[in-house]
Design brief:
The complex is a heterodimer of chains A (about 350) and B (about 210). Chain A has about 350 residues and is of the alpha/beta class. Chain A has a single domain (about 5-75, about 115-350), classed as TIM Barrel (Alpha-Beta Barrel). Chain A has helices at about 5-10, 25-35, 40, 45-60, 75-80, 135-145, 155-165, 165-175, 180-200, 220-240, 260, 275-285, 295-300, 305-320, 335-350; strands spanning about 65, 80-85, 85-90, 95-100, 110, 150-155, 205-210, 245-250, 270, 290-295, 325. Chain A is globular and about 55 Å long. The termini of chain A are close together. The mean pLDDT of chain A is about 95. By secondary structure, chain B is α/β, with parallel strands linked by helices. Chain B folds into two domains: about 1-75, Methyltransferase, Methionine Synthase (B12-binding Domains), Chain A, domain 1 (Orthogonal Bundle), CATH 1.10.1240.10; about 80-205, 3-Layer(aba) Sandwich (Rossmann fold). Helices cover about 55% and strands about 10% of the residues of chain B. Chain B starts with a helix and ends with a helix. The mean pLDDT of chain B is about 90. The chains are: A alpha/beta (about 350), B alpha/beta (about 210).
């Protein structure tokens, strides 16, 4: 099996020739692999593609995570990009701004909606804009169906909270103006479906939807069911109809909402280290594949023996059917390269059929 | 009544209730005591997972409105301020819900709190510390990349010879007790209520 077949087999709840391994290599790590600043990496489609390919080649894991939250950058956006002493500021299509520190570091978001009346003027982004899907197209073209290329759609709840309204305001809105919150969530659902449909048309192998704001450290399982679940489900069901497979990732505790998550229509659930993989496999393993959850803290700190033991524990907890070894969340920026090598090597050793 | 309204997050009713109570002749200090007691219950509910972030945030906002109303009426002597704190989410990180909750709880517990906001550059922490001379500096980070920034801030305080004058407390999903020790912070708290207890303990040690 090649990496694509191995990953796809696990997604079908089957046993591949070895357990696939797919660490969540994000902006800080991939840009470091490439030796460029995170802002350069994020704002240049060609560099972005190069970074993802180089990281996959370096480590030999089974997927490429096209994790750009706003997809590819268009020429218009690059022109509108400004730079001051400390930040690159990139306006995005729905009005949020991405602020990326020039000296390393991750991106900071400035929410778009000061007022819900602004929602009436928002349009679903045009996914056909030149450059928007360029990274995904390139990654699919260059890997020629040898690696599982996973694209990403914005989860309605998380993006409404963090990108559109800002977390504080959104959390209060849930209790004080639920009607408007639902209206925003419906709009964001359309955005996610339109984005995912375009990716499926291009030929993506899978679609990640990250919804960390819906974790049970933040909102109650009851609120999850009311504000996050219905929209996750609408996205998953719609994309399934178009032939797409969705992986939902929530960093944070999802123990109490696992059954609901498995009912969204997602093909796979990515869980973080708060979740007991053995328990999760027993509860939802017949319905969905599982993905996770080697501690990012261990991956950051090492030592290698502890990482290897962590990978082995995950595999022992899940068995070999319908499981993909991954990090519990996006990698810490300073994670040493050799630690990811150790993770991949351990998965190859302990994950053999 | 007022206590119940804070616990239930009756954000639109709280000001009216306090005004009414003052008119009836209740001492502002007694109302303040109610606000503090209410936030104590809210903190417990958060610990017991009866309340989550939205509910706690709503109660904290209700309390804030009450405090704004009472502040001019309260004769807070210097001795009554339990300590001065500056608090902020470190540069590169915009996650500030947890930090805001901690700030509100600390204020509710009688600390003088200077909330510097989110994505706060290291230089601003230093400048504010020079200006306000706080007892405690609170640093928050939700994303793991901000952890290194915390370490840089503490180093910067050392270089500027400010380190000995303040106690550092850290919190946020990215950090742990072990990490706090590793970077030489004076304490770590995982939720707002524990943060209040930690700051009270640090103040006792400082005296």
């Amino acid at each position: 099996m090649n990496s694509l077949q191995r990953f796809a087999t696990a997604m079908e709840l089957d046993v591949p020739d070895g357990i696939p391994v797919a660490p969540m290599v994000n902006v800080p790590h991939a840009s470091r692999v490439l030796g460029v600043k995170p802002w350069e990496y994020v704002t240049d489609n060609a560099l972005y593609v190069k970074g993802q390919l180089k990281a996959q080649e370096k480590y030999g894991y089974d997927w490429i995570f096209n994790h750009q939250p706003i997809q590819g950058i268009t020429d218009e956006e690059r022109k509108a990009m400004t730079m001051d002493k400390e930040y690159v500021i990139l306006p995005t299509e729905l009005g949020s701004k991405l602020k990326i520190p020039l000296q390393g570091g991750p991106a900071v978001k400035e929410p778009a909606l000061k007022d819900y009346s602004m929602l009436d003027e928002l349009k679903i982004p045009d996914c056909d804009k030149k450059g928007r899907m360029e990274p995904l197209e390139q990654l699919l073209k260059l890997t020629k169906n040898t690696v599982y290329v996973c694209s990403k759609v914005p989860a309605p709840f998380h993006y409404a909270a963090e990108w559109m309204r800002g977390m504080n305001a959104f959390m209060l809105d849930m209790l004080t103006r639920p009607k408007e919150v639902h209206k925003l969530l419906s709009f964001m659902t359309e955005v996610a479906i339109a984005t995912g449909k375009k990716q499926i048309d291009i030929g993506t192998h899978g679609i990640m939807m990250e919804d960390p704001s819906a974790a049970s450290q933040v909102i109650s399982p009851k609120h999850y069911k009311e504000f996050a679940y219905p929209y996750e489900r609408r996205v998953c069901k719609a994309l399934k109809r178009y032939g797409g497979d969705v992986i939902i990732h929530i960093c944070g505790d999802t123990t109490q909402i696992l059954e609901d998550l498995a009912r969204t229509g997602a093909k796979c659930l990515s869980v973080d280290e708060h979740v007991d993989l053995h328990d999760a496999m027993e509860r939802v393993g017949k319905k969905v594949a599982l993905f996770g959850n080697v501690s990012v803290d261990t991956l950051f700190r090492g030592p290698e023996e502890k990482i290897r033991a962590g990978v082995k524990d995950c595999i022992d907890d899940t068995g070999k059917r319908g499981y993909i070894v991954s990090s519990s969340c996006g990698l810490h920026s300073g994670t040493p390269f050799e630690n990811i090598h150790a993770m991949v090597d351990a998965a190859r050793t302990y994950g053999k059929d | 009544m007022i206590k119940r309204a804070i616990i239930d997050g009756e954000i639109d009713k709280i000001e009216g209730m306090i005004k009414k109570s003052l008119k009836r002749g209740t001492e502002p200090n007694d109302i303040l005591r109610d606000l503090i007691a209410a936030m104590d219950v809210v903190g417990e509910k958060f610990e017991k997972k009866e309340y989550y972030v939205p509910e706690v945030l709503l109660s904290a906002h209700a309390m804030q409105r009450g405090l704004d109303l009472l502040r001019p009426l309260l004769s807070i002597e210097k001795a009554e301020v339990r300590g001065k704190i500056i608090i902020g989410t470190v540069e590169g990180d915009i996650h500030d819900i947890g930090k805001n909750l901690v700030a509100m709880f600390l204020e509710g517990a009688g600390f003088q709190v200077h909330n510097l906001g989110r994505d706060v550059p290291t230089s601003v922490f230093v400048e504010k510390a020079q200006e306000i001379e706080p007892d405690i500096v609170g640093l928050s980070a939700m994303i793991s990349t901000s952890m290194e920034t915390m370490q840089e801030i503490i180093e910067d305080f050392k270089q500027k010879k400010l380190r000995e004058r303040v106690a550092f407390v850290i919190g946020g999903a990215a950090v742990t007790e072990d990490f706090a020790k590793e970077i030489g912070a004076d304490g770590y708290a995982e939720d707002p209520k524990k943060a209040v207890r930690l700051c009270e303990k640090l103040m006792r040690e400082r005296r």
